[in-house]
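Possible regression after last week's pipeline update?

I re-ran a chain I had predicted before the update to compare outputs. Posting the input and the new output here so someone can diff against the archived version. Not blocking, just want to make sure nothing changed silently.
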Amino acid sequence: MTTEVRVPTLGESVTEATVATWFKKPGDSVAVDEMLCELETDKVTVEVPSPAAGSLGEIVAAEGETVGVDALLATIAEGASAAAPQADAAPAEAAPAKSADASPSVDVMVPTLGESVTEATVSTWFKKVGDTVAQDEMLCELETDKVSVEVPAPAGGVLAEITAPEGSTVDASAKLGVISGAADGAVEPTPRPDKAEPAATTHSGDVEDAPSAKKAMAEAGLSRDAVTGTGRDGRIMKEDVARAVSSAAVAPAPSATAPAPAPRAPVPADDAAREERVKMTRLRQTIARRLKDSQNTAAMLTTYNEVDMTEVMALRSTYKDQFEKKHGVRLGFMSFFTKACCHALREVPEVNAEIDGTDIVYKNFVHMGVAAGTPTGLVVPVIRNVDTMSFADIEKAIAEKGKRARDGKLSMAEMQGGTFTLSNGGVYGSLMSSPILNPPQSGILGMHKIQDRPMAIDGQVVIRPMMYLALSYDHRIVDGKGAVTFLVRVKEALEDPRRLLMDL
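New output (post-update):
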């Protein structure tokens, strides 16, 4: 009996993926739910498990090919998993050595990230020519516009050739290297005394840091010991460096903003010689394109207001210790703003709606996007049905999504389906800004720095902790009255949080 392996659902609005890596080859035995291959979309990696036990038959979609949802990837011959490997005990013992000599070479192909992403950069090779590798052992790492992609060995053997060295840009169908003497993944990796290449910086058992991380550490003036690596085997990624810099106190700040390589050189007379030209990353190109598309598509307008944070700060100060003790998470300001926005969206539903052709789609729920700046760029994880959640649930979800965003571990589904977005530029010290819409949403609220300012209260000048709020909205479906009403309701709820309890 033959079972088909097809492309799984890729998430909302995602219709294509690219076959990145096959971890099995025709004839290999597979178990139910054993990973067969990886597909890459424009944001995440999707693993494809085996739907049945048996042996992998034909691979219909080779590495580098673009496939649609439900497309046929391969076939599995059920019930054949034990026949070939266990036919005779004696031949099975000799099989590894025999196949190592007779098996053809296997190409290591570059994975891509699917729709609209056609290139990747080879960041790090963890093996060199002549090294023994086992099937699924990591060979190299690629950097794309969203994530770092690990490339495992498609078969066991010896790395015979590296066709794409570190720093090279490769397309979706390019070959990275060649493994010779493939032996059905039975080869055990053996450490070599000359493992470390002269040009590579190694540490902790010859684990190499990503080149981008080395450059970032040099620019920030950080030593290797000052950064905790979250990559495989403890290697340092560039986002680890960014976290180390951002978590440093005021004292390390000068080193974190150390001059770039160009200013350290003697200043020549020619201005061009003092410039540094760096290729824009694919992530930055994608961000630039999408933000500009947003401006070109929506009739975007921004309206402002300010909120007195006295009551929220007092409430938070009173209950933060009890809150953290009971719920295991800190009570921040984001849950208050989320609750206030949900309250206001019920009164002004068009801010939570979207345009679909000539229709307006009103959402009777709130999936809140929380914009987060990460070392690799801006991402917007979505907290679904936030209008039904408690303060504690909201704080836990925001903390969890934020950590996954910084670690680059968000899935496609976690960044789709948002109906409204919060953007907290205040954490970076922003006093006032106009956020850009996240299509197809019609509203985004920008939060800013809380700053003590003199305010006239009941005829008296008093100092109050004030925050500017900025609502950017799509004027095609949201009128000025609706936008102002939304901001006023948010302001009222925050200045008197009891209104949230009374639904006023």
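Follow-up from reviewer: compared with the archived run. The two ends are 64 Å apart (CA to CA). Marking as no regression found.
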